[in-house]
Amino acid sequence: MKLTSPTAWTTVSLTINGDGTTSFQPRGASRFPRHWFYGIDGNLAAKSATIDYRNWTTTVHDEDTPWGDAHESIEIAACETALERTLSKLVMQGNRRPKIHKIDSGDYVMRLGEPATSMALVLDGMVEISIDGKVLAESGPGTLLGERATLESGTRTSTVRAVTPVKIAEVDPRLFGEDQLQELRKHHRREVDANGTS
Q1: What is the pLDDT along the chain (198 residues), one digit of tens a residue?
Q2: Is 34 left (phi over 0), alpha (psi -120 to 50) or beta?
Q3: Residue 188 CA neighbour count, 13 Å, CB half
Q4: Domain boundaries of the chain, sorted by first residue
Q5: Would you say the pTM of this structure is higher than 0.85?
Q6: Are the C-beta atoms of residues 125 and 107 closer than 8 Å to each other?
Q7: What CATH number does the domain located at 82-194 have?
């Protein structure tokens, strides 16, 4: 009998342009842990959107290596903002433990026009945000969703659908100050405008 421990690995391609600028593209990675990618400036640039500890620990890695025939593609998510990172700590390290929900790929996290009393913190997976079928943005772990309903009409202003299996924490918006929610809304508006979709 041969015992093999799970292996953590990441494959990244690096492009060096003639003018000296560089860019990178994650090509594959082990299913666990979450992989973090830093730019040449030392700042966090992207991360893997999903982790799967159970499959990672039960997958046998024998002769094949990450650089051989085995190649597991990964979903890449943009990084959350510094504000979202701060607010996430309030949610996950506060006095009240949030309710955690698992959502299957293709199912809805939020629907346009529905009454809203809570926000959502994406813990794992990728979601897409759309209005009337037009995709405005994709978001991954660390993203807070639903602040506009809290600040405005009390109904969802967009639809959020799981692109991969997703795990979210249900968030009570009263944890946050109105100024924090306003700043979060401004950032999300800039994200949509940057994508040229509105």
Answers
A1: 456 677 788 888 889 999 988 888 888 888 899 999 888 888 888 899 999 888 888 766 555 455 555 556 778 898 888 899 999 999 998 788 899 999 999 999 999 999 998 999 999 999 999 999 999 999 999 999 999 998 988 899 999 999 999 999 999 999 999 999 999 999 887 666 655 443
A2: beta
A3: 22
A4: 10-78, 82-194
A5: no
A6: no
A7: 2.60.120.10
